[in-house]
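Let us begin with a simple case.
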Amino acid sequence: MKNIGNRYDWQALVIVTVLMLIGVGILWGAGLFKITSISMFIEWFWQFGMVLIFAGFFIGVGIYCWWLYICNVLIKPKERTLYLKNIEDEMCTFVDKRGKVFYFSNDNYTVDTYYAVLKTKDHIHSIVGPAIDNFEIKKERPSYWLNFYSPIGDFENIFLLPIVYVIALPGICILFYPGLIEKIIGTLMSLPCVLIILYDLKEKIRRSKDK
């Protein structure tokens, strides 16, 4: 499943902003910003490590969404030349001169053709028409974090893989706790996500070799 990802609803932006502020508030209340040494941080982490993982995730997502909003909405699109590599399931796959991949809905465009497009950092807004200039086609450079290949399906240009990592982190942290019971619990918590991450990595390596 491919996602063009060129919509930024203000409601979603409000939600991630609120979650980001809640994450900052939680870390403030937990005393993170009062730490003055590495030894204090280690002691704090053993006590509030889980809090740091989830609050940090909300903060990271908020910052990331605002960064995307600035780059793809506030900054106006500019005309650039892209190469239409293929069309699959009514979705065009374009690449730029660096090999970065862009998706756009098909509207009777021609494969193996250079097009002038209006685009922002990550998204094509419109197709101007066939381009006069061209460039050397490089190997595709798909995003590691926005492409997720799982046993139940493929998801491209969607923010899913980082969530799997965050779900796996608490279990991995528990593995470092002393005691056999904690290590068993940590293994059971993290193993499913680790296997999914390894499957995704194996698929990405295989696909990169096939291209």
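The second case is a distinct protein. As before, the sequence precedes its structure tokens.
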Amino acid sequence: MEHKPSSLPRSRRKRRGILLAAAGAGVAALLIWFDGIFTAAAEFIGVISLFVLAGIIYLFDFLVFKSATPRDENKDQRFRSSK
């Protein structure tokens, strides 16, 4: 078995390896940076959704139980009948 010599000289292979390592490190740094941004956005969306759900529950409570509150006419009638 013969060993096939590389088509590039050793200095160019070394330079190419350094460039590839730098590019890989840069891509890894970008991925970690975007991961942090996505994590912060997910937490922010969770907090905002809590406020939205609380507002929906408050509106539901207001609309459903508004009919159960006594009106002014009913309050006057109750006080007159108890005297």
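The longest helix spans residues 10-65. The CA atoms of residues 39 and 45 lie 10 Å apart.
Keep these points in mind for the review questions at the end of the chapter.
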